[in-house]
Description:
InterPro entries: Aldolase_TIM, Elp3/MiaA/NifB-like_rSAM, MoaA_NifB_PqqE_Fe-S-bd_CS, rSAM, rSAM_sf. Pfam families: Radical_SAM. Pathway: Cofactor biosynthesis; Fe-Mo cofactor biosynthesis. Keywords: 4Fe-4S, Iron, Iron-sulfur, Lyase, Metal-binding, Nitrogen fixation, S-adenosyl-L-methionine. By secondary structure, the chain is an alpha/beta fold. The protein has one domain: Aldolase class I (TIM Barrel), CATH 3.20.20. It is built from 9 helices and 11 strands. The strands form 2 sheets. Strands 9-8-5-4-3-1-10-11 form an 8-stranded mixed β-sheet. A 3-stranded antiparallel β-sheet has the order 2-6-7. Helix 2 packs parallel to helix 3 and helix 2 crosses helix 9. The longest helix is centred in the middle third of the chain and has 21 residues. The radius of gyration is 18 Å and the shape is globular. One iron/sulfur cluster (SF4) binds next to loops.
Amino acid sequence: MNDSTADQLLRHPCFNANARHYFGRLHLPVAAGCNIQCGYCDRKYDCPNESRPGVTSQLLTPQEAIDHVEFILKNHPTISVVGIAGPGDAFHNPAVTLEVLARIRAAHPDIILCVSTNGLNLPDYVDYLSRLRVNFVTVTINTLTPAIGTRIYDYISHHGRIVQGPEAVTILTRLQLQAISLLKRKGLRVKVNTVIIPGINDADISLTAARLADYRVDLMNLIPLIPVPGTPLADIPPPSAALVQQLRWQAGKFVPQMTHCVRCRADAVGLLNQNNTLFDLTDTQTKESFG
Ligand code: SF4
Ligand code: SF4
């Protein structure tokens, strides 16, 4: 971990639970589309990996995103982190994500940059993220076991080819772990999100955590499944609070656990306990400011 990352860790409300009382995050909804299909996801909604489903986000172009960043940072000084977390996958269309991150970094050398992804396309961009000092990356890994993954993922789109079944999960998990390995070699902080899907991956989560510890993952965030109507996993009930607690305890033997995630939308802004969206805070004023 380089000095700048250590310093930034003090101000990151997700990677550092104490910081959440004083520092907020700004999510920019610029990432459209996805390169995989999770069984709990309906693309009408935000990515459930890092978002609360049920509300469709407004997508921003890179220029709109930059305009919003300027407005929010000027008017809300508690914002310490700008991140991209959906509504689809940040590296489905990497050009957009990287353009936005690069432009923010050029204008704001000290802001913390953060990105969240399923990891499939991540290995190719680790060098560039490191150069931009995007020091915090979240990868969603629901399992590392192909037989379980085939019950979670319908397909992946890899090098222009749709792949299904165990081969898809094997490719996905290989690239996720490769990306984490590269990120850690560069000194970035890595959080893994894992959606708890009762009866499918719950018994496998401590095994996942044990393997992630070998890769020096910094933090693990077990997220209870939110069943989304119309999806293949819609009939699976969310895990009980007791199961979530038990799984965190088991996984915590291997990787420190995040327990304060509030499952933000892809356009969330402010302190984690505030329920604001980017558009709540900018709507009237941006219309005036940006014409
Ligand atoms: Fe949906 Fe996110 Fe999975 Fe993509 S990675 S299918 S957007 S839940
Ligand atoms: Fe932080 Fe969780 Fe919100 Fe992501 S979804 S910004 S990890 S609180």
